[in-house]
Write a structure and sequence with these properties.
Blueprint lengths: L13 E2 L2 E2 L3 H8 L4 H15 L7 H14 L7 H12 L18 H13 L2 H7 L5 H14 L3 H14 L3 H17 L4 H11 L6 H14 L8 H15 L15 H8 L4 H14 L3 H12 L4 H15 L7 H9 L6 H12 L9 H10 L5 E2 L7 E2 L1 H8 L5 H9 L8 H4 L11 H9 L8 H12 L8 H10 L6 H17 L7 H5 L7 H12 L2 H13 L6 H11 L7 H7 L5 H15 L5 H11 L4 H10 L8 H9 L13 H19 L2
Antiparallel strand pairs: 1-2, 3-4
Length: 681
């Protein structure tokens, strides 16, 4: 296995953390008789030699030794080594471009090409390993063969032959996935692979294999799917679950503090079942009605593991596609009463990220909050307490039943730092909390290093209510932070000024203090607050125009926003705003275009900027909708964009770099704001 390993000058090679002198030890560890040592060695390979999928010269040097280890039947856990080789060699469906970099050195693309070539040189090893005595090796080898063997007819023959003789369910699943991959890689031979998948999707094959085949057909040949796909898939899932052992033991797996070990512990208890349904959901894509029906079937399963898997994959549907999700959301709410902590926690986590869309689960959330006061606040070993998931989800859904519970939490000793951030979702029903919020804000020690973290959420909450009574406690913050304060304190000043801006004329008593802040790091926020309180254009225009002229200013966008709210009173700034509409930075030219439209009423220059930005960056659409709303009837020139948006089935944030709960929240806000504008047509 290790012939020639000492002849390699490993010290001169590199990996993610420098010299590769430690790599021979890792390679030898992969072949150790000790399971923990093997896992630590594999972790080291992924952590350094193939760090985050990167390829180094040491990675290339390892390939012959990895192939040799994988081929030795006496070495345990070789399936993980074959999977490592597959990752090093790439997936066979694209990758980095090949080529040489400057000065004749191999570029990153060239390194990947060499890695693919090195792994492909061991293709015959992979072919042989498809018949290995270790099922884990056989399954991983199938994945290697379909990726690296460039003889389609031979690959297809091998897959067909292995399906005939294989008895291990896990390897049969790998063969099914291999057929799907083969159909995508070799379109000219796809028909034969698809025929095999169709055969596997029917009896006498078992329910797990039939589900896997349906998933691959959905990806590669949706026209070959059965008409009753969803009920068929749900029935197969339940048949599979009834046959699955209740507990799967793996006594030979070490409990190591490695990435490999941690990932194994984080996997679903039925990872195989989770992957089967996830593949099917992904392949169905925008067939939202089918996916809702499929998810509802999963969530109604008598098996709690199936339901837990369904809860976790639900955000893949909710976060990407619009639709009536009330049915599956209500079913997720029903999981809150489950005895299994893992299922309840999964449901809570998903509902936290749905905001208004969690309303169908509000009764279940309220029942859990009422019965489990211990879940109201979550305490951490390090850091401040936060709101517990059930209470946060209930409040974010806008349910007024959260208000008295939040009042009790506010009256307690350790107020969660994020409590104030859920108040805006409760609207006027939370107004009764304003006195307690003011009291808590008054208690924040301004010399504390966490003053911003404690005060900012409370300021956000108070900005939802009538401001006159809150002005004194906000002024305390402004007066307590001096010029030259550290950046975190300046953030606190800006947040306090934004709160006063929301208060508008009710904050007029704070105007003298705000005027003193018109110079310095918080000048634009002060100008916004002063305009809202007194509409003194003479006081704020000079500094706002100065910010627009400063090419190095980080506050030009904020200055444009203030000028937009000033409307025609900001006329002297029009020339600078016209110049900014030509800026390459989208986040500067769009606010400038909006401001120019609102100030001058002339949309000739602004409309092309806004139309272009709408298509270029979905994240700026809410800014544009706010502008369209502000200009009133003149905004009809862009109503076609809003109508197209409200008719779209896919969330505007899908696939654009956003993720998690903010996808849902931001998209639902955009839909609501578009609808409000169009309702006034």
């Amino acid at each position: 296995m290790f012939t020639g390993i000492d002849e390699v000058d490993w010290a001169s090679l590199r990996h993610a953390y420098g010299s590769a002198a430690d790599v021979p030890g890792l390679l030898r560890g992969l072949a150790s008789t000790d399971a923990a040592e093997r896992e630590i060695a594999l972790d080291g390979m992924y952590g350094a030699v193939h760090h985050q999928g990167d390829v180094y010269d040491s990675t290339l040097a390892c390939v012959p030794f990895l192939l040799a280890i994988a081929g030795r039947e006496e070495v345990p856990d070789r399936g993980g080594i074959v999977e490592l080789l597959v990752s090093i060699g790439g997936d066979g469906e694209g990758g980095a471009d090949d080529g040489d970099g400057e000065d004749g050195e191999a570029s990153a693309g060239g390194a990947y090409a060499m890695a693919r070539a090195a792994v492909r040189a061991g293709t015959e090893t992979f072919v042989r390993l498809t018949g290995d005595s270790d099922a884990g090796v056989r399954g991983a080898a199938v994945g290697a063969v379909v990726r690296f063997l460039d003889e389609p007819e031979r690959v297809l023959g091998l897959l067909r032959q292995r399906i005939t003789v294989e008895r291990d369910d896990r390897v049969l699943l790998a063969l099914t996935e291999g057929l799907g991959f083969f159909a995508g890689r070799h379109p000219g031979h796809a028909a034969e692979a698809v025929d095999l998948l169709v055969a596997q999707s029917a009896p006498p094959y078992g329910p797990g294999l039939r589900l896997a085949a349906l998933g691959q057909l959905a990806v590669r040949a949706p026209d070959r799917l059965p008409a009753d796909l969803v009920p068929t898939a749900v029935g197969l899932l339940r048949d599979r679950s009834s046959q699955r052992p209740s507990v799967r033991c793996a006594p030979d797996r070490p409990d190591t503090d490695t990435l490999v070990g941690r990932l194994r512990r984080l996997r679903p208890s039925d990872e195989e079942g989770s992957q089967l349904l996830r593949t099917l959901h992904t392949a169905l894509g925008g067939r939202v009605a089918d996916r809702i029906a499929l998810l509802s079937g999963q969530l109604s399963s008598p098996d709690p593991t199936d339901r837990c898997n369904a809860v976790w994959m639900s955000m893949g549907l909710f976060g990407e596609w619009r639709g009536d999700h009330s049915g599956p959301v209500a079913l997720i709410g029903a999981q809150l009463g489950a005895e299994e902590d893992r299922l309840r926690d999964a449901a809570t986590s998903v509902l936290e990220g749905l905001f208004d869309l969690a309303a169908p689960a509000a009764d279940d959330l309220h029942a859990l909050v009422t019965s489990r006061p211990d879940l109201w606040v979550r305490h951490w070993e390090h850091g401040a307490p936060t709101l517990g998931g059930p209470l946060k989800a209930l409040a974010r859904s806008g349910d007024p039943r959260a208000v008295p519970v939040l009042g009790e939490v506010l009256a307690g000793s350790g107020v969660p730092y994020d409590l104030g951030r859920v108040i805006p979702h409760l609207g006027r029903s939370a107004a009764v909390l304003a006195p307690a919020l003011r009291d808590r804000l008054a208690d924040v020690p301004l010399d504390s290093p966490d003053a911003y973290d404690r005060a900012a959420p409370l300021l956000v909450a108070l900005s939802e209510f009538d401001g006159e009574e809150s002005v004194p406690v906000v002024l305390r913050l402004l007066l307590g932070v001096r010029e030259g304060a550290p950046p975190r304190d300046l953030l606190l000043v800006e947040t306090a000024l934004r709160t006063l801006e929301v208060f508008g004329a009710a904050a007029r008593a704070a105007a003298p203090v705000v005027r003193d802040l018109l110079e310095g790091e918080t000048s634009v926020a002060a100008a916004a607050a002063l305009w809202a309180a007194e509409e003194d254009a003479e006081a704020v225009l000079p500094l706002l125009i100065r910010e627009l002229r400063d090419d190095g200013s980080r506050r030009r966008r904020a200055a444009a926003d203030v000028l937009a709210r000033m409307g025609p009173a900001a006329g002297p700034a029009a020339d600078e705003l016209r110049r900014l509409t030509g800026e390459p930075d989208l986040w500067q030219r769009v606010p400038a275009a909006c401001a120019l439209w609102r100030i001058t009423g002339d949309a000739e220059l602004s409309l092309p900027v806004l139309r272009d930005a709408w298509s270029v960056n979905p994240h700026i659409r809410r800014t544009i909708v706010a502008c369209v709303a502000a200009v009133g009837p003149a905004g009809a020139a862009l109503h076609d964009l809003l109508r197209t948006e409200t008719a779209a089935r896919r969330r505007h944030t899908a696939g654009s770099g956003a993720h998690g709960s903010h996808d849902v929240y931001s998209d639902e806000r955009l839909l609501r704001e578009c609808g409000e504008v169009l309702a006034g047509e």
